[in-house]
Design brief:
By secondary structure, the chain is mainly α. It has one domain: Helix Hairpins, CATH 1.10.287. The protein is 76% helix and 0% strand. The protein has two helices and no strands. Helix 1 runs antiparallel to helix 2. The termini are far apart.
Length: 62
Amino acid sequence: MAESELTTLISKINALARKAKTTGLTESEKQEQTLLRNQYREMFRRNLKQQLDRIEVIDDNK
């Protein structure tokens, strides 16, 4: 997912969170919120895994 898609996803999540605090969410909005949060979590995990896979440990004590 591109950076702009991530920004859009976060904006939607935040908009639903604000609405939940003020007027509440409909059932379909709650489902959308859950879906968006799950998409964000998956992206976060994937990006973290990619970063960790690129780490090279160098041990000078060998």
